[in-house]
Amino acid sequence: MPLPSLKQQFAELIALPSVSCTQASLDLPNRPLIERLASWLSDLGFACEIQDLAPGKANLLASYGSGPGGLVLAGHSDTVPFDAALWRSDPLTLREADDRWYGLGSCDMKGFFPLIIEAVKPLLERPFRQPLLILATCDEESSMSGARALAAAGRPLGRAAVIGEPTGLKPIRLHKGVMMERIDIHGQSGHSSDPSLGRSALEAMHAAIGELLSLRGQWQKEFNNPLFNVPQPTLNLGCIHGGDNPNRICGQCALEFDLRPLPGMDPEQLRAAIRGKLQPLAEQRGVRIDYGPLFPGVPPFEQAADSELVRLAERLTGQAAEAVAFGTEAPYLQQLGCETIVLGPGDIACAHQPDEYLDLSRIEPCVELLRGLIGHYCLDAQPIP
C-alpha cells in the first residue's frame, strides 16, 4: 500500500488524540499514534521497536541501517490538553488557511514526523554508512516518562540527536532546567485568641518563603548566562493554600513553586540548599515540614558551542545556535552519548495555544535541512573539519 501524502500524514496524526496530562481524567493513550507511525516506517524498510512503558503508553524506536553512530531524529508523540471551544475549528481535524496548517500537534510536535518521512524517502536507495534512528516518545508534556525510561535503560542511540521542538528552524544548544516543587507545613490549630494553643503553619510558611527568596537572590548573584533572555535562574512562588478561618490558628499550609536553573546548576544541590534552610526553621517553629518535587524535573541542558552537531546545524541553517527558556528531552538524549540540539519548524509562540499551526513556508526548508543532516551523519558519515 502506498504511503499517504505529507498532508494526509499530518491529518492522520492530528486526528489521533494523544493528550498527556497529570490529571488522569484528561490523560490519553499514545499507542495508536505510535502504531500508525510504525506502520508507515515499516513500509519504508525501517526496523521498528515499540517499547511499552505503561498501559496505552509507548515509545517508538525505528532504525534504518546498522552499525555504531548515526543520527537520531526525535520528537514526542503527545500533546497538551485543549479546550475545543476556544479553537476556530476542530483541533483534531487538519485545516489549511492563511498558508498554514492548523491542528493540535501541528507545531508541537506531531508534525515533525511526517517531515522526517518526507525528507528520508528519496534517500533510501542510497547506501547508509551509519544508521538513521527515528524516536517518538510518550508523555513529554507531563512527566517525560518516555525519555526518562530511555535514559534509565542506558542504551546508546547514536552519534548525534536532533529534537524537532518548535524553534523556528533556529538551532538551540542550551535551555534552562524545570523544577516544580512543593512545601507542606504541618503545625497545630487552635483558638486565635491564645497563640500558645497552636503552632501556626502559615507563619512558618512566611518564614520559609523568606528563606526561598533569600536563596533566589543568592543564586541570581552567583549564576548568570547572557545567552538567555532572562540571564539569571528564576524562582516563582506559584500558589499557596492554608488555613480555613480568621479565628483559627492555621494548622496546615502548602506552597508550590517553580525553579528554573541555568546550565551548570545541579538540581539536587539546589534541593539540598533548600532543605538546609527548612530543617532548622521547622525545629525553631515546632512544626513538621515536608519538601519534595512535584515531578522529577528536567535538568538544564547545554551542548558545547564547538561540537560537530552545533557547527553543522549553524552551517545548514545559516544561524548561530541560541538558548531558550523552555525545557525539552535534550538532556536525556545527551545522557545516552548523543551530541544533541533542539531544532524544528514550528513557533513556540503558538504552542499550547488554541489554533496551533505550522507555517507552510517552513516545510520545504525543514525537509532540506533534515536531508542535509541525514546526508552528513548517515550517508557521508564523516566529521566536518
Automatic annotation (TrEMBL):
InterPro entries: AcOrn-deacetyl (IPR010169), Bact_exopeptidase_dim_dom (IPR036264), Peptidase_M20 (IPR002933), Peptidase_M20_dimer (IPR011650), Peptidase_M20A (IPR050072). One of its GO terms (cellular component) is cytoplasm. It is found in: Cytoplasm. Its main location: cytoplasm. The keyword Nucleotide-binding does not apply. GO terms for biological process: L-arginine biosynthetic process. SUPFAM superfamilies: Bacterial exopeptidase dimerisation domain, Zn-dependent exopeptidases. Residues 175-283 form the Peptidase M20 dimerisation domain. Keywords: Amino-acid biosynthesis, Arginine biosynthesis, Cobalt, Cytoplasm, Hydrolase, Metal-binding, Zinc. The keyword Magnesium does not apply. One of its GO terms (molecular function) is acetylornithine deacetylase activity. Belongs to the peptidase M20A family. ArgE subfamily. PANTHER family: ACETYLORNITHINE DEACETYLASE. NCBIfam families: AcOrn-deacetyl, PRK05111.1. This is Acetylornithine deacetylase. The lineage of its organism: Bacteria, Pseudomonadati, Pseudomonadota, Gammaproteobacteria, Pseudomonadales.
